[in-house]
Amino acid sequence: MTRVEKRILIVDDDRDFVEATQAFLEANGFTVLKAHNGKDGVKLAKMERPDLILMDIMMDERTEGFFTIQEMRRQEELKGVPIFVISSLYTEMPDFDNPPDRAWLAHDEFLAKPVDMVQLVEKIRQRIGQPA
Amino acid sequence: MGEAAAPETVVVIDDDYAMRLSCCKILSKMGFGVEAFEDGTRGLEGVGRLKPGLIVVDLKMPGISGMEVISRVHEIDPQITIVVITGYATIDTAVEAMKCGAYDFLPKPFSPDELRLIVNRGLERRRLSLESQRCEVERAMLKRRFVTFVSHQLRTPLVAIHQYLDVLKHLGDTAEVAAKREEWIDRCLKRTDELQSLIADWLTLARVEGGTLTKERIKVDLKQLLPGILKTYEAMAAGEGVSLHAALSEAPLCVSGDWNCLTVLFDNLITNGIKYNRPGGKVTVSGWPAEGEVVVTVGDTGVGIPEQYRPFLFDEFFRIKDEGAKKTTGTGLGLHISKKIVAEMAGSLDFESQPGTGSTFRVRVPAWHEADVAKTGSSE
Ligand SMILES: Nc1ncnc2c1ncn2[C@@H]1O[C@H](COP(=O)(O)OP(=O)(O)O)[C@@H](O)[C@H]1O
Ligand SMILES: [Mg+2]
């Protein structure tokens, strides 16, 4: 069974960011799922197996996004689901003390906030294609 | 710390056998691990291997000179304390050695007591300098983390605004987005307000920390200050369906403080009482004198503070965000600032809370003494 729908999960604690991004993605034909913290993100991702995940880093916990990515990478159901980090922290964050291990580097793309919406959609399309 | 228990190692480098022997004897009696070497080359090898806290080195040796040993040792580790041994005739050289980084010198012949004294002093100095270095590193790290955190806090509302504008720019003409325009513009305005108060709070914090806000000590009667503040927040409280009450004792409630600081303090506590309340709720400000102190409590009938968050309440930027928490705006700096202000006044700030029933914040500050006048007068 091929799914024509392309579903994107946004994990971000800023509701305005989520609302704006959701509107833009939906206008481009994507279906949006959302979670406002890492725990809900993992839960929803396991349940729904989205085609792609957009992940914030600093949520309630300073490095919540990293832990969440790690957790997601451990889930059998989520094998192969691309994760894009969208964060206002600049790239590799030299002062982030002791990330749990280097597994968080497993993210597929690192985009700085604010993110150029057109460019974001472009990158998503490159990765998972355009919804029919 | 743990490593303090391990005995410090001392290295002795001297070509004179009798000297090596007696130094080793004295130093090992003091509880140090001691190793002695007969020339600079072997000595340096030993220093690299043993990582001693202190070395005692003869300046006049065949082979590598003592002077060179000093600079090579400090290449290995600049924190190693070096004591040089010299003959009477070479005091000038000893001074030279100290310029090169030796800590002190022992003219020959010296007594065991002299050696003990100088070694103990040298190691003490080393301990202090290591400690201050460690504090330095820790402070720098905290500062770096704080800067990352603040810039993240400042960027978050900006990002939200940018994102809305970006979507409006690209899709503003589509029906779906047009329908949202009003709401989004309102959100953008809200987020600029958030940014404003973040900057304002951050500046207040910087002023409190820099001492500029708490410098001035004058006689302030809280019986005058508090009703004024309550009046300012009447509209806000009415908007939340909360009523404000004052229960101040008959006696004046004079404290020694700064009017602006005290205003910031009670602004924070009262607005929290309003914000984290429920429709139909109350905020009560009570005040009374108590044994050289003035006590003011700000009580609310609101959501309360769950046990697990209490230890963090005064941390900078801390806000409760669990499901039970009301959706409110705030910076998480108010209580942190308040605590600092009260501490500056040599007072205390604490709270009691019953989740679901309400919280009471209590300020205790020293009461005004007429003797304070003199102090204020002389500092002006
Ligand atoms: N009176 C109160 N009742 C319940 N929770 C409170 C109260 N005062 C403070 N808090 C909690 O403590 C947090 C920190 O307070 P504060 O430092 O004043 O920051 P802000 O009000 O800007 O969030 C608040 O976000 C809230 O979760
Ligand atoms: Mg507050």
- Low-pLDDT segments, ≥5 res of chain B: 376-380
In round numbers, the mean pLDDT of chain A is 85
Walk across the major sheet of chain B and give the strand order.
Answer: 2-1-3-4-5
| Shape call of chain B | elongated
Average pLDDT taken over every residue of chain B: 88
Largest interface, with counts of residues having CB < 8 Å to the other chain, equals: A-B, 26 and 28 residues
Helical/strand content category of chain B: alpha/beta
Distance between the termini of chain B: 45 Å
Structural class of chain A: alpha/beta
The helix fraction of chain B, in percent, is 40-55%
**C-alpha termini separation of chain A:** 14 Å
Quaternary structure annotation? heterodimer
Radius of gyration of chain B: 33 Å
Query: Topology as H/E string of chain B?
Result: HEHEHEHEHEHHEHHEEHEEHEEH
Binned, the helix content of chain A reads 25-40%
* Tally of helical runs of chain A: 4
What's the Cα radius of gyration of chain A? 14 Å
Count of separate DSSP helical elements of chain B:
12
Q: Biggest sheet of chain B: strands, sense, closure?
A: 5 strands, parallel
Morphology call of chain A: globular
List the main descriptive attributes of the protein structure presented here.
heterodimer; A: 132 residues; alpha/beta; 5-stranded parallel β-sheet; 4 helices; 5 strands; 35% helix; B: 380 residues; 5-stranded mixed β-sheet; elongated; disordered C terminus; binds adenosine-5'-diphosphate; binds magnesium ion
Give a brief rundown of this model.
Chain A is α/β, with parallel strands linked by helices and 132 residues long. Helix content of chain A is 35%, strand content 17%.
